[in-house]
Amino acid sequence: MLKRIIWMGLLVVWVACPAFAVDGNKLLAEVDRNLSPESYESYRKLINIEPDGRKKEFTLFTVKKGVDKVASVFIAPASEKGRSTLRLGDNMWLNIPNIGKPLRITSLQSVVGGVFNNADILQLDYNAEYNVEKVDEKEREYLLYLKAKTKSVAYDKLKIWADKDKKLPTKIECLTEANMLIKTLYFKDVKDFGGGIVRPAVIETDSPLYKGYKSVMIFAKVKKKSFKDEVFTLTFMSSLESLR
Amino acid sequence: MKRCRVVFMLLLFWIIPAAAVAAESYSFDTDEIEKKSYHVGGYVEFKPVLFGLDRKAAFYKLRFFNDPRGQNLLEANGRIQLEGSFEKNIFRIYAKTNTDLKSSYSGESERSTFYEFYGSVKPLSNLKFDVGKKTMKWGKGYAWNPVAFVDRPKDPDDPEQAMEGYILATADYIKSFEGPLKTFSFTPVIFPVYDHVNDTFGSNYKLNLAGRFYFLLYDTDIDLMFMTGGSRPDRYGFDFSRNITTNLEVHGEYAYMRNSRKNVPGPGGISRQIENEAHSFLLGIRYLTSFDLTTIVEFYHNNAGFSVDEMSNYYSLIGHGYDLYQATGNMTSLAQAELLADSGYARANAMQNYLYVRFSQKEPLGILYFTPSLTGMMNTDDASWSLTPELLYTGITNWEFRLRGSLIAGARNSDFGEKQNDYRIELRVGYYF
Asked: Is any Cβ of chain B less than 8 angstroms from the Cβ of A221?
């Protein structure tokens, strides 16, 4: 009888265990989808805040399609208006109206200065660039340890703290291969944008490399929308504003 | 009790600001992103420049032979650019004007023109037609673009300046694919040259045709371009650009011109025209270090440019003309030299081989929006050079402050050694609205 109970117990544990184990990559894909639909448009305001409180603001209109296509155009301030950026996978370009032709840029540069770099501004799905190595399950959140799929990704490693119920990030640490902290992103102010999109409306970032400086990204009018592939081309960069 | 109330009030005043800070919130007024059918904006610039003159240089003698100057020359420049657009359905009109103002030893001058003024129709998301005055800006090079067949020459000393376009009709057709070829686009250009229409471009009364085919193939930008029609010798070219790693980009351009023509001084100062095949190419890299130092290195070869001997003969013509004018007042040789200057000898980088190196450090010492840079350009045929340190600050919204100096050096009869100036210092203050 005892033997039968032990066998039954082992069988229950064997069946139940996979249900409890967290599939890291699946969880990351869920986090990505909760952050934004696969194809969407949005407006963002970037604010760079200096230690003395001085601010500089930039407003961008952004469109994204699939896992590897994203484009943005600056609509303010006047000095930046018309500048556009395009990302196709690992390829990034900046189009400055005066220069008139798209220049290749790198993910670690920043078209706005401050703590946000081009990889942050032209963010693809995390799932597209990273594999989940490990997931720590805590009482109210998951901690995902991510490793870049290729060397061309801006940060070698990410640590993502994600809310267990909402499956949305609350904090992300961006690290080098040697685990040196480059910057921390804080996701705040979860908001219903309509159309089933509920996500943080504010991302704050600071960096030990920019002590005392802070940058903030505020989202508005995040909307599901589909675009033709031709929108995500160098030739279209100067016409991005026509999509608004 | 009263004391308690005072303590409570003090606590309240102490806590409220702290609470306000803790709950710092950011607003995004959606009115500011409301799209309007029109846009009006502009740019105003003030740029005083101090030139340190080289009074032994050929180009000083050519310019000031009858009006000698001291060691320095001060010049004040102003620029006003206005731009506006109006959009309705698939139609758009865009205009950009430019007014240059100059106050110098020779008086005041003003030149206003439309840099761009064109209408667009976009019947499909992958098809667009433009007609009017427009800049095309072909090529991948930063300082030079040998394949920019339908553009005015770029100023290598200030490659990011807005440029004046040409009157043309063009279209963009774009097609995207899955697979190694991700994008294809075709840009045909109809380029007329008639009286008052692009008449400084080349031979008159010709309808030229140009085109560019673009491919994003295996993560590499590739363009093939051509121009034919008779206003200038037929030309063909290609360019490419590719990121080797996230922080290293390589680019290049090649242009071939049939029957390229140039004027060279012959015996007695009379110019003659030489016709040759011309090959022109540029190879460059852009590299970003982990500490945000961007390096651009480009090598430019143009065998349609002047050789060391041709340039030396030209400087001799100026020298001879200057001496003749000083001795007799005869301006014949200098007038001949001025004609040749207009035909190409006075243009920037008129010779055959140049090296361009630019280092720019983003936000050193944590100073936000501050970018110091150092640019060097060398004529590798005669080892003459210029060196330009620059400080750029863009920390105040819509304002731009740039201070730069240039040292220009080289032996006698060399490219940079015979420039009008030994050095120049300029301040540029720009405001966007």
From this structure: yes
| Residue B419 neighbours by CB under 8 Å, 6+ apart | B54, B57, B59, B408
Give the alpha-carbon dihedral of A159, A160, A164, A167, to 10 degrees: -150
pLDDT > 90: what percent of chain B? 70
Question: In this structure, is residue A1 part of a structural domain?
Answer: no
Q: Is residue A199 a part of any domain in this protein?
A: yes
B284 confidence band (pLDDT: 50, 70, 90): very high
- Tokens 């040292």 label which residue? B407
CB contact under 8 A, A113 and B136: no
Residue A6 has pLDDT above 70, yes or no: no
Average pLDDT of chain A, as a whole number: 86
CB atoms within 10 A of CB A199: 20
Q: How far is CA B40 from the centre of its chain?
A: 24
Chain A residues touching B25 at Cβ < 8 A = 189
Instruction: Tell me, yes or no, if A78 comes closer than 8 A to chain B by beta carbon.
Output: yes
Note whether B223 and B230 are within 8 A (CB).
Answer: no
Closest chain A residue to B178 measured between Cα atoms? A229
Cα–Cα separations (whole angstroms), residue A210 to A115, A181, B43, B429:
7, 12, 31, 27
Give CA–CA dist B190/B130, Å, rounded. Answer: 11
The pair phi, psi for residue A198, each rounded to 5°, is -120, 115
In angstroms, how far is CA A231 from the centroid of its own chain? 21
Chain A hits for B432, Cβ within 8 Å = 77-79, 81
Query: Which DSSP letter does residue A22 get?
Result: -
Residues of chain A positioned with their CB less than 8 A from the CB of B249: 104, 106
Owner of token pair 């490419």: B240
The span from the CA of B334 to the CA of B328, in Å, is 13
- Looking up residue A185, the CATH number of its domain turns out to be 2.50.20.10
CA gap A207, A162 in Å, rounded:
20
State the CATH architecture for B35-432: Beta Barrel (2.40)
Range of weakest confidence among B20-24, B278-282, B284-288? B20-24
Cβ-Cβ contacts under 8 Å, B241 against chain A: 104
In a domain, A6, yes or no: no
Q: Is the pLDDT of residue B388 over 70?
A: yes
More confident residue, B373 or A76: B373
In the chain, the amino acid numbered B217 is L
Mean of pLDDT values over A8-31:
67
Read off the pLDDT of residues A157-176 as tens digits, 9 standing for 90 and up.
999 999 999 999 999 999 99
Q: What is the pLDDT of residues B299-357, one digit of tens each?
A: 999 999 999 999 999 999 999 999 999 999 999 889 989 988 988 899 989 999 999 99
Which one-letter amino acid corresponds to residue B214?
Y
CB under 8 Å to B184, separation ≥6 — which residues?
Answer: B174, B175, B176, B177, B213, B214, B215, B216
Q: Where exactly are the structural domains of chain B?
A: 35-432
A194 near B CB under 8 A? no
In which domain, by residue range, is A223 found?
A: 24-243
Distance of residue B53 Cα from the nearest chain A Cα, in angstroms: 31
pLDDT value for B1: 45
Cβ atoms B230, B208 nearer than 8 A: yes
The average pLDDT across A51-60 equals 89
Chain B's closest residue to A221, CA to CA, is: B30
The answer as to whether A39 is a domain residue is yes
Q: Which two tokens stand for residue B161?
A: 């300046």
Tally of domains in chain A: 1
Identify which of A47, A61, A31, A6 has the alpha carbon closest to the alpha carbon of residue A217: A47
Chain B residues within an 8 Å CB radius of A234: 183, 185, 214, 216, 221
